[in-house]
Design a protein that fits this description.
The protein is 15% helix and 33% strand. The protein has 348 residues and is an alpha+beta fold. It has a domain at 42-263: Jelly Rolls (Sandwich). The strands form three sheets. Strands 1, 2, 4, 5, 7, 12, 13, 14 and 16 form a nine-stranded antiparallel sheet that branches. The chain has a seven-stranded antiparallel sheet with strand order 3-6-15-8-9-10-11, with no helix packed on it. Helix 1 packs antiparallel against helix 2 (284-320). It is globular and about 65 Å long. The two termini are 14 Å apart. It is found in: Membrane. GO terms for molecular function: D-mannose binding. It is a single-pass type I membrane protein. InterPro entries: ConA-like_dom_sf, Intracellular_Lectin-GPT, Lectin_leg. Pfam families: Lectin_leg-like (PF03388).
Length: 348
């Protein structure tokens, strides 16, 4: 009952325009604008059971050593040496602005030696195996590397998340774990955690790239890095790959959820009700907005009254076993005073 009440209140507030019921994270600031809402893209999202009745997925390909456990994950590599696997979207991502959330898992028995890691790709090429976390080197686009093995000494810890913007000619700096061409990075213990591990990528065309990681506690997102004024290739393919060598881990993709992001208008007024001034002349649009605000206020008030009344009636009915107490002439515990009250033939 309380859940229904909250739903009705949420819808009522939406009508009033004071509490938009939108996807989480929709208040992201973009200069003087915000991401108003997001629309999920089925073509670039994948969830259990991952495959259809033909043992394929309409929108995704997987290959090399990758295999699907329909109840749990797409396993890119087993916890064994010399493994390589990948998962790639079949269609390019044509949205101008988007939010990608990847739930993954990196696990293995060893607590000292493990590797090599996995990568999330937004590139012009797709499904080309190679030495960079299971995908090709000299890529064009964005690579975000979840690196679990340090090839050299560093002042920071591993596992580590490193991003590189490839131009199609520059190789990945394997010996120094991507330091030479890193556009952003952070250390994060995403391996063998007690909570769900996720990576969230938010991109606004030619404006910024923001990466957050979830690994510490439930609903606790940590900022990894933020890059302003970045331009990714138009219509890239979305992919995830993983690689093991002499050291190894199991690398799993649990789900991928991609949303197209809709930004607020550049010239949206801050106060839609005030027009040219609170006490000055209001144009027809402002008067129309005020009229609709009043209508919404009336609808909202009616919804609140209905919810409260329904909840009170539900509570009384629970306490007294129904609206009518075995012909006692009461409604919710009160006398009907000759009005007949509500009978069992007409319930709320």
């Amino acid at each position: 009952m309380l859940t229904r009440c909250f739903t009705v209140l949420c819808l009522a507030f939406s009508l009033l325009g004071t509490l938009p019921c939108v996807h989480a994270g929709a208040d992201t600031k973009v200069a003087n604008r915000t991401i108003e809402r997001t629309v999920q893209l089925r073509t670039h999202s994948i969830h259990p059971p991952y495959i259809d009745e033909d043992l394929q997925n309409r929108w995704w390909d997987f290959g090399a050593d990758a295999y699907v456990n329909t109840n749990r994950h797409v396993r890119l590599t087993r916890s064994a040496p010399s493994q390589m696997g990948w998962l790639w979207s079949r269609l390019p991502l044509t949205s101008t602005n988007y939010v990608i959330e990847v739930e993954f898992k990196v696990s293995g028995e060893s607590t000292h030696l493990y590797g090599d890691g996995m990568a999330i790709w937004l590139t012009t090429d797709r499904a080309e195996p190679g030495p960079v976390f299971g995908s090709k080197d000299k890529f064009q686009g964005l690579g975000i590397f979840l690196d679990t093995y340090a090839n050299s000494r560093h002042p920071y810890g591993f596992p580590r998340i490193v991003a590189m913007l490839g131009d199609g000619e520059t190789p990945y700096d394997q010996d120094n774990d991507g330091d030479a061409h890193s556009i952003g990075s952070c250390s994060a213990m995403f391996r063998r955690t007690n909570v769900i591990t996720k990576l969230k990528i938010t991109y606004v065309k030619d404006t910024y790239l923001d990466v957050k990681v979830h690994y510490r506690a439930w609903d606790d997102w940590s900022d990894c890095f933020h890059v302003d004024g970045i331009s990714l290739p138009a219509s890239p393919y979305l992919g995830i790959s993983a690689l093991t060598g002499q050291v190894y881990d199991a690398h799993d993709v649990i789900s991928v959820t991609t949303h197209s992001a809709v930004l607020s208008s550049k010239d949206a007024p801050r106060d839609k009700l005030s027009g040219n001034g609170m006490f000055g002349h209001k144009p027809d649009g402002a008067r129309s907005s005020w009229f609709f605000f009043v209508i919404k206020l009336i609808l909202f008030s009616g919804a609140v009254v209905g919810v409260l009344y329904g909840y009170k009636a539900y509570t009384l009915r629970t306490q007294h076993g129904g609206f009518m107490n075995s012909g006692s002439g009461t409604f919710g515990g009160f006398r009907d005073a000759g009005y007949g009250g509500y009978s069992n033939r007409r319930r709320l």
